[in-house]
Amino acid sequence: MSPATPPPPEDLVHSESFLRLLMRRQLQLSIACAAAFLFVLLGLPLANYFLPELMATRVAGFTLSWLLLGILFFPAVWVISWIFIRRSIALEEEEVAQVKNPTHR
Amino acid sequence: MTLPSLFPLAPGVLAVLNVDPWIFAFSLFTVAVTIWMGFRSARSSKTASDFFVAGRSVSVGWNASAISGEYLSAASFMGVAGMVMSSGYDALWYPVCYACGYLFLLLFIAGPLRRFGAYTIPDFAEGRFDSPLFRKIAVCFVLFIGFFYTMPQMKGAGTTLAYIFPGMPYWGGVVLVGAVITLNVALGGMKGITLVQAFQYWAKMFAISVPVFVLMSVYGFYGAHVGANDGRPVSPVAVQGVTPGAGVAAAEHAVERKPLTSKAPADTAWVSPFGPLTTKAAKAAGLSESEAKPYSLLYTYSLIIALVCGTAGLPHILVRFYTNPDGVAAKRTTMWVMILIGIFYVFPPVFGVIGRNLLPDLYNATGAKGTDKIVLELPRLLNERGGVWGSILSGITCAGAFAAFMSTFSGLLVSMTGAVAHDVYGRMLKPNATPEQRMRMFKFAAIGIGGVSVLLGAQVEALQINFMVGQAFAIAAASYFPLLFMSVWWRGMTMAGAACGMLGGGLAALGCTTVINLSDLKMVDLAAFWAAHPLLRILCEQPAIWTVPLAIGLMIVVSKATRAQVPGDIRMKMLVLHAPEKLGLKQEYIQEHQAGH
Predict the structure, then answer these.
(1) Ramachandran area for residue A88 (φ above 0: left; ψ -120 to 50: alpha; else beta)
(2) I want to staple B555 with a disulfide (CB 3.0 to 4.6 A). Which of B313, B406, B500, B501 is the partner?
């Protein structure tokens, strides 16, 4: 039992539309980030397949493809996850604010 | 009992005691610190919650180090370097996908799973579908995937100890490592191993990076070593910086290189995509290079799916999310895990590349006696340059290998023990057990499962580390990942749908890997059949490309057919999964549930 916090406005939090909004916004964010990731991940084999000469270009000893996969891939994923976490925490704060003062909606 | 003939090491290594003192010292140090930390944390682990989820109060930094420590197994530490050395470019997909599978966890699973607040995955399974039956199915899968993943760790322990102490039987290492970790887990539970695993991450990071930097400063940069593989014949005399031609080219080739043996793949095949690993099935069928390429592309994609989805579905990794204080911390932890393991995974391929140029003799043997031991063997080359630095660095990498299979095994042991003590005992056998009883059961279960793991591990000496890990990933990708992904995001999912999908996908993957296993061990002769059907061979060896869609498809179809069984309070469950914790919905949900029962 936690009587300290006042019960949130029942109608809004438990409404169907709030849940839909919640899930849709978070899923949209996740899918956008996943799409960026998959574009790189699934694109690289295609590039290897259709542009073998370009991907075999030597850059400081590495082939371009080796450099992308063995080294540069990791920072790219960090950027995607950093953006995701910032946006998703902001989304949560927005949702909390929306429930706490339901002025519009 | 000495068997030096079995271990084709440099003769100088087999000194008086047959043991390199530096390697022995560093390995002993790692084991001693692990035991000491276990005893130390045993004093602070008191409650059942400490044992199962580390009191749900592990900070982001500790937890991220611990997850990374748990994740970087023998396969990552030794296997990746060995695979890059033997297969070249194609093997780079392993470290990349091992690291990036975490992104899928972060995007779709980490936050909601933590918010739901359960002790174990079977807890989640039951809570989400209100079905005790489903808890039983989930427990079976935890144990099953866990044991599959334990076996390669045990194999790594056995072969590394046999390497350090020539003459030690294979099972000796399995028993030693099994006993140390079982003791640690029984003493301190989840809270105890969190500390140990965090320490072991940094031990591994140190052990893989420092030797790489030293080796690169002596023998040349990573890129120069890749660049040396340009298809030109290697003269027996080292080509030390005197290549005629443009300045840049000369600088790139200014690394030492020894002639390759006949078993090594050629330069071009090794350094380019669609090399020996992915074309094996098509080559066996006698296809030409251009005909084989589409098959290689298919193999590559299936491998990517298995590794990415498999990472997101490994039970011993998932259980760690429950140790975060809240969903935001779970997300932050995943971010840090990706950074920590991403940095780590840049290094093992460097060992493989330099090893190809400097230790090509390893191509002549296979598995643990061949390329798989490159990480342990390569630093020792420095001894040729005088001094004992080679032995010291080799000692450091051996210590890292120890940390690798010890930490992964402790994670697996905790998740399997949690499943038995919490789900089987605490929920099924004796639902009203006191916390003390459950804690005692945790200790007994740890000892029992540790014993079974040692017994299983002693049987798998003949199998390859990376292959066994691949099997565990393929099964996890087709069972747990679809289950979690669909249960979190689709409210129409029913228990029947979830169970059918998980069993269908998991069993299909298991069946395929078993067939491949039997044929590779020559128990069933399928060589002629595979040669006639390269496509089937690829779909069987890397089944994820069809088993993951199969599992998801089954879930959708069966759930639609059993629509009436969707839990009545599904909206509330979804709210708990997705609404920010600050709204306090979890409390409300628990109260409603208790009132309802």
Answers:
(1) alpha
(2) B501
